[in-house]
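Lecture notes, part 5. Sequence design as translation. It can be helpful to think of inverse folding as translation between two languages: the language of shapes and the language of residues. The source text, in structure tokens, appears below.
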């Protein structure tokens, strides 16, 4: 098992290196990039907005129970905003993109592999990684942070509405406390986190699809492994990113 893990890790590292190397190598195939950006971004917009809304509402309702015991309702706004923009919105956006976009990428490339379409590209002297993987990379790198911004906005707005309309928190105090505590660096931290997710999701999805074996069953297995591995890697990346950030803040 250890041997297989090391072999798999080496293969995906080589695949990642080739993909990154081709990101800035012409031809750039803008039409393919924009097509995948539409799929990864616009067609995922509604799901991300709904996710952000319920994240904000749940955090507001859950935090209120604790704050009301200590008479600290005025801190609800900053707590909701920080939780959403710095942690929950990037991670949940990554989950949604993994489940929708990553799974689709693995299925598409896996189907092309088992039906020998990728082999046909190689016969026609078309680099399959450059043609198939790079546009998907660009789409995720650009659109995951953009989707995270919309998840931030919807989550913070939903938290505000839930707090002020449902829980009766003073709107003025809620907003003033949020503006006073939440800094641009907190928003930037969440966006930088989402950029790393934008790299991880397509590399896992495209690698699993690109090297699919076993026909239709293999395609299904590649899709399942893509979603599961992507979610686990996002959680690990989130922990590492948070640890590094806290270390820098502590020693600065």
């Amino acid at each position: 098992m250890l041997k297989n893990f090391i072999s798999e890790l080496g293969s995906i590292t080589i695949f990642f290196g080739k993909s990154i190397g081709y990101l800035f190598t012409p031809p750039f195939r803008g039409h393919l990039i924009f097509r995948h950006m539409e799929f990864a971004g616009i067609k995922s917009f509604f799901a991300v907005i709904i996710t952000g809304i319920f994240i904000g509402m749940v955090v507001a309702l859950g935090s209120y129970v604790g704050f009301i015991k200590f008479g600290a309702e005025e801190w609800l706004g900053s707590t909701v905003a920080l939780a959403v923009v710095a942690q929950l919105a990037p991670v949940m956006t990554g989950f949604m993109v993994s489940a929708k976009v990553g799974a689709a990428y693995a299925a598409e490339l896996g189907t092309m592999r088992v039906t020998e379409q990728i082999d046909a590209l190689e016969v026609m002297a078309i680099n399959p990684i450059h043609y198939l993987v790079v546009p998907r990379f660009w789409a995720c790198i650009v659109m995951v942070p953009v989707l995270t911004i919309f998840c931030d906005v919807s989550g913070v707005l939903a938290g505000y509405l839930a707090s002020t309309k449902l829980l009766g928190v003073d709107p003025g105090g809620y907003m003033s406390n949020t503006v006073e505590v939440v800094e641009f660096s907190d928003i930037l931290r969440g966006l930088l986190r989402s950029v790393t997710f934008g790299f991880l999701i397509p590399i896992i999805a495209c690698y699993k699809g690109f090297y699919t074996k076993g026909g239709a069953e293999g395609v299904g297995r590649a899709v399942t492994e893509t979603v599961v591995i992507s979610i686990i890697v996002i959680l690990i990346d989130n922990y590492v990113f948070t640890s590094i950030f806290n270390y820098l803040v502590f020693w600065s």
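The translated text above is only one of many valid answers, since several sequences can fold into similar shapes. The chain has one domain: 29-241.
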